[in-house]
Design brief:
Layout: H1 6-12, H2 41-45, H3 55-65, H4 76-86, H5 96-104, H6 116-128
Amino acid sequence: MYALNHNQQLKQHERFMDTDDEPLIMMTPIKGYGTMPLVSLEEAVKPLIPFVSEIEQMVYVVKERCQKPPADQLSVDESAAIMLYTLEWKPKEESVYYILNKTLRNENRQSLKPWFLYLKLFVAALSRLPSTQRTIYRGIKIDMRYNDKYRKGASLIWWGFSSCTSS
């Protein structure tokens, strides 16, 4: 085993510290995905094929990796939708989490429409996960003591899904 240098460690945990990409402005709410039907993961990603390279292959991989039935009491499609979001492929800019968060942070809400079926399945899956109480961590790349971007007591909205860790 070798020790990672500081830059390698930062690169490895970059998805946990992507708050610099947050616009921190009030944008129009995301409307429309909630009325979409729940469909299979294969159906949910069809509109994303032009935007996410190799997404069909990634869906195949995550569905094969899912236990049948999943241990989390979700359907295979729900569990695989979460796995698809967490999967990082090279380059990371072609990963679902990266492209989805970039789109969520875009003021052009029309660009989200192809994501509606996937968002419906993904959010439904997240809402069905068992509740737990624990400390989680979310990294940011700034020294909070010297930055007024995040003032104590201020409210702000992060438009992207946040990757967090319990360790």
